[in-house]
Amino acid sequence: MILVLRALGVGDLATAVPALRALRTAYPDRELVLAAPSWLGPLVELVGGVDRLLPADGLDRLGAPGGPVEVAVNLHGRGPRSHRLLATTGPDRLFAFADARAEHADGPGWDDEEHEVARWCRLLSWYGIPTDRTDLDLLRPLPGTMPTGVTVLHPGSKVPAKRWPSGRYAALARDLTGRGHRVVLTGSTGERATAVRVADEAGLPADAVLAGRTDLGQLAALVAGARLVVSGDTGVAHLATGYRTPSVVIFGPVPPARWGPPPERRRHRVLWAGACPTRDGVGGHPAVAAVGVDAVLAAVEEVERVVRADRAVAA
Questions:
Q1: Are 279 and 286 in contact (CB under 8 A)?
Q2: Strands of 228-232's sheet, edge to edge?
Q3: Which of 27, 90, 104, 241 sees the fewest Cβ atoms within 10 Å?
């Protein structure tokens, strides 16, 4: 068995796709088990190649893997806690970044400034496993009941500092609606109140608020069939990258050099105001607040020009 630890969220799983695919190719006859939160199950299926999900939420404990572990792969972090957690499974080998605290001298050194996709590809390359960091595409789900051709605005984020002001989302929704976009608002159950407020201010109908009404599989289907996605640096942005859905992503405080879409994917635009003063702990970060509605609209026009050009070439 090849046991991989990535007990994090949507964006974290999406950025680990090239590494997971590389492991699948390197060990075609081994069972590939991913230790991750159970609610990520629908997205794990869309990665492809993972044989089984071992429920794991954080680093408190890891259930029995269900067999001997030939290689444990730490795609979760730098250690030492994640290293030690995998060591409890008794693997023959551990692929992980070097960490003396966990008595793991093997592996490359950690780089705080490295892009998240490149980080895990570099780790596997150290152990002789070829990787392709551009291999980010997700399997396309069936649309089911989700509308297609809509413009998805995602005003929430589990990290408050990454949230663009809701009033700007409302202004953006009004403008895009006037340009012929059918706007819907997504988010978690806890973010539904924000989405309702944005819809009310923008004059959108009640059924435009999908926040709290979609599971992860439905959200993936929605993004896969969308006309456009606008969000902060959060999981929905990575779904847009995985489905090559045109997107505009508002970054801050973490720069796009660490989490942004790859530059070769021309249908995505990032907006980053650069380093800004540290926030006061309330509301969004100044780097996010520095991005205006006009800048987002200009970026929308840019990605839509790219889409039109792509279609003209395909025709």
A1: yes
A2: 183-185, 151-154, 228-232, 247-250, 268-271
A3: 90
Does this model's pTM top 0.90? My answer is yes
Q: Please, what's the b/e burial string for 48-73 (b: 16 or more CB within 10 A of its CB; e: otherwise)?
A: ebbeebbebeeeeebeebeeebebbb
What is the Cα–Cα distance from 5 to 85, expressed in whole angstroms?
Answer: 9
Q: Three-class SS of residue 196?
A: helix
| Section 38-61 average pLDDT | 95
Nearest Cα residue to 24 out of 132, 110, 97, 96: 132
Angstrom distances, CA of residue 314 to CA of 140, 184, 246, 259, 264: 20, 29, 17, 30, 18
CB atoms within 10 A of CB 39: 13
Q: Are 97 and 114 in contact (CB under 8 A)?
A: no
Torsion of CA 39, 41, 43, 47, to 10 degrees: 150
The three-state secondary structure class of 198 is helix
Which residues 6+ apart lie within 8 Å of 174 measured at CB?
202, 203
Average pLDDT of the residues in 122-141: 97
| Greatest extent of the chain over all pairs of C-alpha atoms, in Å | 60
Per residue in 266-285, pLDDT (tens digit) is 999 999 988 765 655 555 78
Please name the residues in contact with 251: beta carbons below 8 A apart, sequence gap of 6 or more.
Answer: 232, 233, 259, 260, 270, 271, 272, 287, 288
Sheet containing 71-74, strands listed edge to edge, beginning at the edge strand earlier in sequence:
52-55, 32-36, 2-5, 71-74, 93-95
Pairing of strands 228-232, 183-185: unpaired
Residue 218 to residue 237: CA distance in whole angstroms: 15
Q: How many CB atoms lie within 10 A of CB 104?
A: 20
Tokens encoding 156: 């929430």
Q: How far is CA 214 from CA 19, 203, 220, in A?
A: 28, 22, 9
65 cis-preceded (ω within 30 degrees of 0):
no
